[in-house]
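Message: I would love a firmer grasp of how sequence relates to backbone shape in proteins. Thank you; the sequence and its tokens follow:
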Amino acid sequence: MKIAVIGTGYVGLVSGACFAEFGHEVTCMDYDESKIIRLSEGQIPIYEPGLEAIIKKNSQAGRLIFSTEYDPAIPEAEVVFISVGTPASRRGDGYADLSYVYEAARQMAPHLRDYTVVVNKSTVPVGTAAQVKRIISETNPSATFDVASNPEFLREGAAINDFMRPDRVVLGLDSKRAEEVLQSVYRPLYLLETPFVITTIETAELIKYAANAFLATKISFINEVANLCEEIGGNVQDVARGMGLDGRIGKKFLHAGPGYGGSCFPKDTQALLRIAQENGVAFRIVEAVIEVNAAQRARMTRKIRQAIGGHESGKTVAVLGLAFKPETDDVRDAPAITIISKLVEHGASVRAHDPQAMDEAAKLLAGVKFCSTPYEACQGADAVVLMTEWNEYRALDLLRIKSALKSPVFVDLRNVYRPAAMQQLGFSYHSVGRSPVNGRKYQA
């Protein structure tokens, strides 16, 4: 099939490349000409394991091309996926900014020729598909098309596997013809017996928000448990394991830390809360999740402050990890950015390292020294803060870290190391939800 993907951001680029891997002919479009040129030359603008190889393979096979032009890709396409960004909010009010989605609909409409299924792949509030349909109909009254919702569930750092072997595919439709077309698009997944949720457009639009809000709830919940553990001498990792072994709960997203971040959870929880309020529903759980997440970042800043003597002024802090999670260069709403900004504001000097995210972080952090290795970042620092649990930080040469530091203060906001072992090495060790001596430790 011939597919057009509007938007070459994270979702659009991964989706387009994977559709091409399925064997479809895919054109990925973007208004950014320099970005399209770089993609055509094989330069990938984001870090995502496995993506570069798939793009190279399918570009060479002629199944994947990049363009700034809607013609001929849109007229020839059987399916057009709108995969543009929906920024965190407009005017700071928490509502998703849908201007890019609506502009994509407006720009593509004149180019629609034969019957086409227009699919919202971007994360959008309930009712967006109806507005897209209205815009296309008003712009091109003669167009023959259906609008569908097909939310993405891609985890940064594992997006290729998530697309090729998903837990489920959600299709929101109001047309049997559109359903048949999209089943053809996803036929390889039917052969793998992937579960498909075929539902109404409005329900599909809500599923993504509900799923992300629930995962964010698990994170905020375990962080509150961690805070309680610190007061009573408990071990949050043991609590999380005891909870996670219950099949009704599951172990994923029960990892205490500085709070959630990234491109999805912060904006999606805010948008879901606004949708509920707009429809007269008090979504108090999501409201509390958002408040807990903000408070957790402030609590982590205080933890660092206390570890270095009660104030940041004049102190040097080494920070390991800037991305909101491992295996990505995404620093959007990353806890590290918030915490580092507060440390700098209060007079600290920050030396930072991240395997992939330093270039992106540099756009947001002024006055921070970016270092080529974690050991360079620790040189002469008053403390080191492990902010993101990259694999290379799980097996640090701790004696080398200790010798590089001015004082052996280690603040582990991801609970990567064991308190007893760190104390034996002579560190003043601070973690999340685990007191230094609290009985048997969960062996991570």
User: Anything to note?
Assistant: The chain has two domains: 2-199, 210-430. Residues 198 and 311 are 55 Å apart (CA to CA). The first helix runs from residue 10 to 21. Confidence is low (pLDDT under 50) at residues 438-444.
